[in-house]
Each structure stands twice: as structure tokens, then as C-alpha cells.
Amino acid sequence: MQEVTLPLTILLTLITAICSVAAAWALTKRTAEAAKETADAANKKAGELERQLAEFKIEAAKRFATDETLAGVRSEVVEAINRLADRLDRVIEGRRRWFS
């Protein structure tokens, strides 16, 4: 009986080892497929966000003021304030002459 038990034990051990390797391979394959699906979804989302960012940059370039535009507006405002100050100075000088 011992002669049959040893080969049977070896056979069962080999079958168990083969089944374990096959199960591990199947699990690894499924995990890799799930990771690929997740990566594909992430790449798709990244592509969409990249497209949206490009559209935003174009819209921002159309709507937002550039540094040069702001500098031009600033100089125009400063000039207008200076002209207003000059007029106010003339009014004050005229009143001084009038009441002196």
C-alpha cells in the first residue's frame, strides 16, 4: 500500500501546484486587464481635459487683457487724470484772481 500512496501523494502535490499556478496566472491576467481598462479610461479623460484646456486658452486669449493693453489703458487714465488736474488748477487760479 505504501508503494501506491507515495506516487499518489506526488501526483496530488503536482496537481495542486499546477492548479495554484494556473489560478495565480488567471488572477494576474484579470488584474492586468482591469489595469489596462483603467489606464485606457484615464488616457481618454486626459485627452478630453487637454482638449478643454486648449479651448480655454483660446477663449482666455480672446477675452483677457494683455499686459500691453493694460499698460496702454493705464497711460490713458493717467493722462486723463493729469488733464483733469490741470483744469482744476486753472479753476483754482481763476478764483484766486477773481477774489483777490
Task: Outline the structure in words.
There is one protein chain. With 100 residues, the chain is mainly alpha-helical. The chain has 2 domains: 39 residues; 36 residues. The chain is 95% helix and 0% strand. The longest helix is centred in the first third of the chain and has 62 residues.
Task: Give the SSE layout.
Layout: H1 2-63, H2 67-99
Domain tally: 2
Order of helices and strands: HH
Determine the strand fraction and express it as a percent band: under 5%
C-alpha Rg (nearest Å): 42 Å
Instruction: Tell me roughly what share of residues is in helical segments.
Output: over 70%
Shape: rod-shaped
- Structural class of the helix and strand makeup? mainly alpha
How many extended strands? 0
Main β-sheet description: none
The chain-level mean pLDDT equals 91
Poorly predicted parts: none
Distance between the termini: 139 Å
Looking at this protein, list some descriptive labels.
single chain; 100 residues; mainly alpha; 2 domains
Short note summarizing the structure:
The protein is mainly α.
